[in-house]
Amino acid sequence: MATIGVPPHADAPAAPLTRRRRFGDRAFRWTTLVVSVGLVVMLALLLWVLADGGWRAIREFGLHFVIGRDWNPVAGRETYGALPFIFGTAVTSLIAMVLAMPIGVGVALFLNESGAGWIKNPLAVLVDLLAAIPSVVYGLWGLFVVVPAMRPVANWLFEHFGWIPFFGSTLSGPGLAPAALVLAIMVLPTVAAVSQDALRLVPYKVKEAAYGMGATRWEAILKVMLPAASTGIFGAVVLGFGRALGETMALAMLIGNSNQISLSIFSPANTLAALLALNFPEAGPREVQVLMYAALVLLAITLVVNLVGEAIMTISARRAGVRR
Questions:
Q1: CB 247 within 8 A of CB 272
Q2: Dihedral sign for Cα atoms in the order 68, 71, 72, 73
Q3: Superfamily the domain 56-319 falls into
Q4: Cβ contacts of residue 242 below 8 Å, gap of 6+?
Q5: SS3 content of the chain, % helix, strand, coil (to 5)
Q6: Does residue 2 carry a pLDDT above 60?
Q7: What is the pLDDT, as a whole number, of residue 10?
Q8: What is the pLDDT at residue 70?
Q9: Alpha-carbon gap, residue 82 to 306, rounded angstroms
Q10: pTM of the model
């Protein structure tokens, strides 16, 4: 009598590995190993090139380069301080994440929980398309759409609330606010995609248990799903922050390229990435060394942020019982 539910040949021994299959397994294993080692070597070479190119500037300026405010490449009166660029990079990225985080998490919740395919599928495609738009196109859109639309709002805020440092200037052209807004749209796909993956890692039984205890749908989402996926969502924010730190062309076109530190979100500023993109083509030998130092600082900041994000994502996956 045949056993019900047991497929035929279930107890049959596995087919022995042929010489061709063994060769394929070994070739695949060595290929992945070579690629992995190659990536590490490439990163090490990148760090070495930047450190070697900026070594003279590192020895001459030291940490004063990081905390200095003046940038004057004129021969004989050369002073280099990257603090305004670090400030602009950090502020634009932070404002962008404050704007992108709730929207990205909301989109992830909708895509993960909604069953309405007629709007869910087009929305998923739209979010993917946002990641495919070139940075320079975002910059042009910001110049011709975002800046003119934001100018009357900025002027009204300055007129009525100018005593608040954040609104202490008008918006006459590019500035921190339009650059941060466009940057938020650029990092939105990263936040939404990683947050959606974090929500998918939450076992469905957890939500079923919440429903079984009488929770409504919103209570299950806000009090069960989000707390369970909070580590992964925070990892998405950190990864999006790392993406924002390295953005170049859109910010170079929208931030105003002014080497100053101002609390007003409408004042022009500058970023490390924009500094490198705009100054390298015309830089002399000495300024190239300083720019290499600035590139090393930007790379160090970005690497630290991304490593923290990856660590948070790994912890989230382990808590959910998923191997990464």
A1: no
A2: positive
A3: MetI-like (1.10.3720.10)
A4: 302, 305, 306, 309
A5: 75, 0, 25
A6: no
A7: 47
A8: 81
A9: 22
A10: 0.81
